[in-house]
Design a protein that fits this description.
4 copies of one chain form a homotetramer.
Chain A lengths: L8 E2 L1 E8 L9 H11 L7 E7 L7 E7 L2 H4 L2 H7 L4 E7 L14 E5 L2 E9 L4 H10 L9 H11 L11 H11 L4 E7 L2 E6 L8 E5 L15 E5 L3 H4 L3 E6 L4 E6 L2 E7 L10 E2 L1 H6 L5 E2 L2 E2 H15 L6 E4 L5 H11 L7 E3 L12 H6 L5 E3 L8 E6 L8 H10 L4 E6 L12 E2 L16 H5 L3 E4 L2 H9 L5 H8 L11 E2 L1 H4 L9
Parallel strand pairs in A: 15-25, 18-21, 21-22, 22-24
Antiparallel strand pairs in A: 1-23, 2-5, 2-11, 3-4, 3-5, 6-7, 7-8, 8-9, 9-13, 10-11, 10-12, 13-14, 16-17, 19-20
Helix pairs in contact in A: 4-5, 5-6, 9-10, 9-14
Chain lengths: ~500, ~500, ~500, ~500
């Protein structure tokens, strides 16, 4: 048994860029795409792909895909090949389905009667099987199991078939949105335009940024725009010199071209349905410097820690964290509880994958090669250890053992999110129901099972309030842009993996 | 210009293990060696090597070396090959000389009249050139530029040439130690014994550990020994289930066999000389959970931060760190100054090496793809940012820029070590004197040069006192083991890179 | 200038196998496929792919594709993955279009309403552009430029859309054959059946074989069948223990299942058209031990040499060959002319691709690292050197230079095929018209240009007669199988690259 | 059981080059070395190495070594690195000892008191163990098992130790030659000179060539020299534009510098001993276009075939060859016997290494994927098949099976060399005595064992006479150069593997 990661994971990240000057431009779009993708690497590490377009009529598309991290998948010759693009979209992927082959990698490019389109997709179509049947009934063969190919063929197929006039891709995208409610944050590139699309429930994130002249990063006016970017997370803006502009709204279709950003339409949700942005983006997946719904993820995590300190106070000496993702929650807990914050573990940055076939001796040990105990900081003390989530329960256990062997008198686990109990069908990789510790008999005595002195979780209500407390009324913002559609403006989040309440019926 | 690491680096780490049971034993020595090496990976990432011995007479040695991280250099088939060793030594290397080829990798194995010996070395012989000449004058050709080959040939060559009796390797090691004063922490494996050697000045670290039954990690008696390990740093003990035993003393030769650990001799320093353990092991190189001279490195760094707060107080709102190495100093500074500790940067764990050939636009930006700013934590605030060292001055500058663009009103840099001004000839990779920012004209206005509102360094005296304050009298410890040699027992550290005062004359 | 290959090349080879026993069978289909593919490696070296089916209902297909030779593309783990197939098809590919990416590799698998089909194709559809348009007009997107994907989508799309009953793949294949006349030798796998299809002109080769018990290779009865194979060339049968059965006829659809081989239909050519089997398969592409139209390729090449000796006799001392492909023609020339056959060149088997950037000196030399001159065999003699074809004229020139420097007094080139003057649109990679030496001004003095004492080519008539002389009347054979279609039974070959007379109108 | 190569193999090839113009010269020595090495690739395919020197004082040496073929081991960046050499030596290696690691690769470079020397060696020192002991007794450690390192250390060590004056490498080489009689063809590079050395028995080949201006390849005068080359075989001269000059004589030391080639000395054999050039270089190892002792290897092989036809005539219809190495012998046999020469097998050029784990079916078959039978050439005929040697007897057997299944009525094997019965200790890789078919009980009925109708071998006397017949009196040539040493001038060859008579006592 290797010492493994937590077992939940994001499926993908998408990113796009359009240079705003006259083309061909000095701005190297492929470089911006690569850096943007590197910043989204935490959302998928199995493969990466970039497609650029020169924006001409007809356009020349250049594509490169590769397995592994962006740094592996994009050697210098790949970047050289891509360098003439004036716009482009890219994708980084972690496969939930287990089939991790190059041909499933995105973006997907297909040649249609009206020219080539490229599609990058984050999410999972809840009614993918029904849609596949539909497409195939029309006589189309599907060569991969990817939703991205399915979406692309749906776009190619969808009537109206405007053979004589210009292709109406927006009508086709709208049609697609009526056929599948969630979940997708989608980039569709056609010639000189990128359409950025978010599903009506806004389940996966998507936001817009503006590339500004570096010299004016401090004070930027609207005139100073070198290009537009669109990304799963705003954390990708900083390293390329882009400024956060706004989120793509649930159900919105945004057109990005060198002439700027234009909201084309907002496809509504069914009457009465709330938005359903994935709450685990806040808890675990997103990078802490990203901004969703007007608030920094780090701040939300800190609030979760504060809330946890209120809900689950501890009689202990010090508060600490399982580095690095639980640190904001630990600092919040410390602040709220008044207990001193210390570090108890240091991380081995170079742990890699060592091919250890442990003998009995090492198996007993749990092989905690990933962390070292900072013994003198906590020996003889009672430690509150904050973790962001417990999925299978097999990673926290050796850490507790390590701390106790190093001299902690008590170790109390406080988890800054509620127990995960249900599968996700909207783009998150979660172990099977049976593998989740919260569904096992051992959960009755979770503290005993993992070797802790006590274990407490944040409540669902606590999490929701920590998340929603900071959201400035979205209604006003939305109304500014789209005053015809007030129903989408209320606050709501998807908590299906915690509560089993899915935003749409699964048999949609 | 890539955003680069600080530019100083450790050269190598060494590790050894002897199984203590009857041979062949259940303990898989190769597995223990690999895990030990992974824990020392921060001391060298360019190549790794393991040599095991079955301990028989004559012994069978098995060697494997490879470029890159341990995880790359040791694929499963390599470990399979090594699995029958009952003892072994290993080495991880970062080349200071720029020649990074497989044939320079350690451990070095040579066949001698008395059988094969294997040598692993951390350090740099101050009189290597003179010793090479000497060896070659004897008629020996040297096939690499590595000190390890030189040491091996010196051991093979050194009289007395005990042709008829058993080879006296200890006499040869002593002879070697009279020929070169520093710096070396050395492992010499011969048949069923590892000799662990530290130079008389104790310039590089080396310590001993005891492998204990996992079930008795909490309460261990002397009888419960499954094996012995020796390592550059004690951080490698935890992940293999070993207990810290003690340091190898300056000048000491320790024999490790399945019968246990035995101190054979302590070769003295010249009268009046103090030990000269590298002070930068505390400041920068070592892993924070390692123990030197009885104190945890993390604690020393925290004390440096406290001392810095005393020497260089700041009128500011918050204290923070350049993650991750400066965090203990920042927490110490916060504690001492009473200012709140916050996080201002988050790290991209997947940054990799992306082949960005930045255009003018990205070059101006500094391409801070490594860090994201946690804007909301410090916008509108005056930040004290603690760094552990400033070497060339080109890494802190884009960070300051990032913080200011994200809204910090002031950024004050406090450095938890003194300026580096001099080269090291004892195993540390430091840029040339000309490249060091502290030797440049720009240093006169270092704050202006890097864009900070103020910059202050810890003093040499402050550093030395922060380090030495926590050292329990070494004299007593040493006297316990070797009561003939009191001169080596006083406290002393090498600060040559800061002060230019080298522990030995360089023309030795 | 590297010393390069001749510049013409086959595009691909296809191979298929069905185990004939009860499933799952002892016969390892993946092994047979791999060996069959290795024997077709001369038809394509850029990529290879295998798809196997377990033949169940619904079937499980397993696919593996890789770049490079079969030995590179199919490591042991790939074969392991494929081992449970009871039938399968495979493909080896050399891209003429220059786009050599994994996603263009065959076989192509698509999921359709009636289940997955897999397609492997050798040839080039003369009306591919029109067919792509047609498919896309139907709303299908095409994700590659490969004809194989196009064929697959055409099969998926073609009415009748038998939604309620079983899918009628044969009807669909027939429909495909009415839409595109040439060129394709096609394998279509569906569940437990392989359909082997050859276009009505029979432009590319395809033949059937029977796997027999090894012990009965000498004397086989019809009962002893372990499986059926289908291949571009019969040379692949020997190494797997298969016996040549017969050719797939022009226009024929053969169904291969575990129950045996069944001719389903022969789609006729337009009234009056002759078959158009590629004559260059005889001249250059095919392996000499393959059998086409009842005759061994080697024998045809020998006859070409004899015919050449009649058409172009030479006053010389010895006859020799450019090894290895021209050897049968050289032996034929020697036999007919009465001149002794000798070897003048030996080949460096290990020449590989050395990255020589020749300085002026080596460039003048022509770098003939591929061949060594067997000086003593011909020094002082007049040599007739037989080559199979001269395409660009840049490979024969350094050989002549080599022979002259080594002492040949005269070198007369006799080419066992006519000059190539026209492009091929049916699956052969030929340089552009401008690059062909026969279309250049230098061709007027080709002997002077390449440094020979004389140059003579075989005539088109000579070639055709050498090829057709040995063909037993196909008419009788065809009539046995399909007595409704006598028009396809006359002998005919495609000589378009020599004469410009294409078998179908190119704008079909 | 893979279908394997014959099982005997050359160990290595050596090559050297000195540019003759003023330095730095236009001649790219690294390119010449690479091409020279490619031509020697048949002498070793496991690793390759090049060392160049700029010839300055002190010299700068540049080395590159790699595993695999020259084309793999020397990527473009390696050649770039080596390009500034004015002279250099190189080596290609096949390890007989089974330890095939980079560190055993040649050339070996060592730093000595008098500067660096580089050594490349073909052969095997018969008294290596004694010499290793001697070197180690002097206090030298040996880091590899290679003879090349041993030779280098012997050269470094050997007195006289000329500390004050210039190093006398020639004296050292002579001293080495008195310590070990055979076998070695040796290149020693020091600064601006290459010493080419052949052992007193001349066991391994070595010859000299002159690089001439390409424009004057036809008619060269002594003035037109661009450089000097030295090589294991003359076949390497053609592709680099060099002219064969002469052999290095048994026992000779030749100095090669930019001033030309100079014979320094000839170290004599013991009184009465004949030279002992390896007769298997003629039979099997050398490339057919190489020249030894004044005669082309191809011609000798042809004579072996003629002699075989005299010794072992056959009542058959046709004569053929196992391609490609037995072809000259087959043509000789055909010529002498009057039987027609035909081809019966064609080779699959792309056979590669396919990971076939044959099931019972394929195992029975023998998996003859390497060859195809040219059925129509011999069906119904009695075939004499000439092979150059039969080592283990497992490669000829499936070929005979193939021919019989394809219709040969009889297959008679005639082997153009005598049976191999004894091990070689002088640089040839031969299977163990037990593995040699000639030492097995089955040899009594070898024809039955391999499935042939009859088997006959060339006699030792026949082989020796076929080899020696063509040698012009060496005595005169030698006397021209070295009139003091007439004993070395008689003709003699090593036939130890055939007769068990070794040229020197093995316990030397």
């Amino acid at each position: 048994m290797e010492f493994e990661e937590s077992g939940i994971g994001e499926e993908c990240g998408v990113f796009g860029c359009v240079a705003a000057g006259e083309w061909p431009t000095q701005l190297e779009v492929a470089q911006v795409l690569t850096l943007g993708l590197v910043a989204l690497q935490h959302r998928g590490q199995e493969s990466a792909g970039i497609v650029t377009s020169n924006g001409a009529s007809p356009p020349t598309y250049t594509a490169h895909k590769g397995m592994g991290l962006v740094s592996t998948a994009f050697p210098p010759e790949a970047l050289l090949k891509l360098r003439y693009g004036n716009l482009g979209i890219c994708h980084t992927r972690y496969s939930t389905t287990g089939i991790s082959e190059l041909q499933n990698c995105q973006p997907f490019v297909v040649d249609t009667l009206h020219g080539k389109i490229a599609v990058a997709h984050n999410g999972e179509l809840v009614n993918a099987q029904a849609l596949r049947k539909k497409v195939m009934r029309h006589g189309v063969g599907l060569s991969t199991s990817s939703d991205s190919e399915l979406i692309t063929q749906l776009l190619a197929l969808t009537p109206p078939m405007e053979e004589l006039g210009a292709p109406d891709w927006v009508a086709r995208i709208k049609n697609l949105m009526t056929e599948t409610p969630t979940s997708y944050s989608l980039l569709v590139m056609f010639k000189d335009v990128i359409y950025a699309v978010r599903d009506p429930y806004g389940n996966r994130p998507l936001c817009l940024g503006r590339l500004v002249p570096i010299s004016k990063l401090h004070k930027v006016s609207n005139e100073d725009t070198e290009g537009w970017v669109v990304s799963s997370e705003s954390c990708s803006f900083q390293s390329i010199g882009a400024k956060y502009y706004r989120e793509v709204l649930p159900g919105e279709i945004v057109q990005i071209s060198k002439h700027g950003v234009k909201s084309l339409s907002i496809v509504p949700r069914p009457e009465g349905d709330l938005p359903a942005f994935c709450i685990f983006e806040y808890v675990y997946f997103a990078r802490p410097d990203s901004i969703f719904e007007g608030q920094m993820v780090y701040t939300v995590r800190q609030r979760c820690g504060q809330q946890l300190a209120i809900e689950a106070p501890t009689d202990a000496d010090v508060v600490s964290t399982v580095p690095e993702s639980a640190t904001p929650a630990a600092l919040g807990y410390a602040q709220q509880s008044g207990l001193p914050y210390i570090e108890v573990l240091c991380k081995n940055r170079y742990v890699g994958r060592t091919f250890i076939q442990p003998n009995t001796r090492l198996r007993q040990l749990g092989v905690a090669k990933k962390f070292g105990a900072l013994t003198d900081n906590f020996a003889g003390k009672r430690v509150v250890l904050i973790d962001d989530s417990i999925v299978r329960g097999n990673t926290i256990s050796p850490i507790i053992k390590l701390l106790k062997e190093a001299g902690a008198t008590e170790v109390h686990i406080r988890v800054a999110s509620p127990p995960i109990r249900f599968p996700c069908y909207m783009g998150i990789n979660i172990p099977t129901k049976e593998e989740l510790i919260a569904n096992k008999p051992e959960f009755q005595d979770i503290a005993g099972y993992i070797g802790a002195d006590s274990v407490q979780y944040l409540t669902v209500e606590g999490l929701v309030s920590a998340v929603q407390e900071g959201i400035a009324s979205l209604q006003e913002k939305e109304n500014m842009i789209n005053n015809r559609n007030k129903s989408s403006s209320r606050v709501g989040h998807c908590t299906a993996c915690l509560t089993g309440k899915y935003p749409v019926e699964l048999e949609w």
